[in-house]
Amino acid sequence: METFFQQIINGLVLGSMYALVALGYTMVYGIINLINFAHGEVLMVGALTSWTVVSLLADTGMPGWLMMLISLLVAIVVCATLNFAIEKLAYKRLRTAPRLAPLITAMGMSLLLQTLAMIIWKPNPKPYPLLLPTEPINLGGPVISVTQCLILGLTAVILATLMWLVNRTKLGRAMRATAENPRVATLMGVRPDMVISATFIIGAALAAVAGVMWAANYGTVQHSMGFLPGLKAFTAAVLGGIGNLAGAVVGGILLGLVEAIGAGYLGELTGGVLGSHYADIFAFVALILVLTLRPQGLLGERVADRA
Predict the structure, then answer these.
(1) Contact partners, residue 40, CB within 8 Å, separation at least 6
(2) Most CB atoms closer than 10 Å: which of 11, 231, 243, 289?
């Protein structure tokens, strides 16, 4: 039973990071119907930027939490600028193109970012410094680290802020109006270009946070680290109902739990034939089942009634 609760904690932490990235996917898709497959690479750039800043500050004598905070802020700025440039240079001219064109462009941008990161930061994995206390917190059997507590708390605050932003602010109303009908939104005084750019910037900031938290939790960074989290986050967005913010969160948490619990019991269930590194099986089996039984995802995409 202790193993089960430990895997629940691990799954919540992993699912929280998936949810942050999945929100970036679902926000962009909800507004311009684009799957930004370069989003995982934005996470990677955030993690590597944070590693660079922390390495530069290592000899200053700063406390670890302050170095992490500074590196996180720098990573958010770099990722937001990068995603803004990607939208303007790669996607803007393809908004009215057939859907296959921006999809292929997104895949090409993903490969381009990976290659540039490999050139800038070199291909070898790099250890991410331990910036927070490493003493685990005992929960009566299961344990949780300070870094994992930070991930859960930070994710909860960010998700609550994002829901408030989308549902209660002028920018959020502009996002929802643009998602429903960009041409009518323009007539009502909304600037779709500004809204789309803001959406890419917010998504990049969420990916940067997820990247730094991923690096801090797993202790390593490299140029290819964004591919699998990006793919899993896209899976989470589809699982919950792409285009639905709450669905992205639910999908991310659910995917993290399924993967973590599967990793804890896969060897036992298969008699040692399959190890924990085959845990992805559970995640994608869950996706196949959900899409077979409910193609719109668990919560489904919000679709407005149009005249």
Answers:
(1) 21, 110, 207, 226, 227, 228, 229, 230, 231, 233, 234
(2) 243
Of 112, 125, 151, the residue nearest 21 (C-alpha): 151
Residue with tokens 């429903």: 180
Structure confidence by residue, pLDDT tens digits, 75-88 = 999 999 999 999 99
pTM, 2 dp: 0.89
Residue 166 has pLDDT above 70, yes or no: yes
- Tell me which of 141 and 44 has the higher pLDDT: 44
For residue 13, give every residue at least 6 positions away whose Cβ sits within 8 Å of its Cβ, in sequence order, or none: 148, 151, 152, 217, 256
> Is the distance from CB of 174 to CB of 202 less than 8 angstroms?
no
- Whether the CB-CB separation of 71 and 143 falls below 8 Å is answered with no
**Confidence class for position 56, pLDDT limits 50, 70, 90:** very high
Q: Is 156 left (phi over 0), alpha (psi -120 to 50) or beta?
A: alpha
Q: How far are the Cα atoms of 97, 123, 179, 253 from residue 117, in angstroms, in the given order?
A: 29, 8, 33, 29
**Helix H segments across 1-140?**
2-32, 39-57, 64-86, 100-121
Q: Are 34 and 28 in contact (CB under 8 A)?
A: yes
**Strands (DSSP E) along 106-207, which ranges?**
126-127, 137-138, 143-144
Taking the C-alpha atoms of residue 264 and residue 48, their distance in angstroms, rounded to an integer, is 29
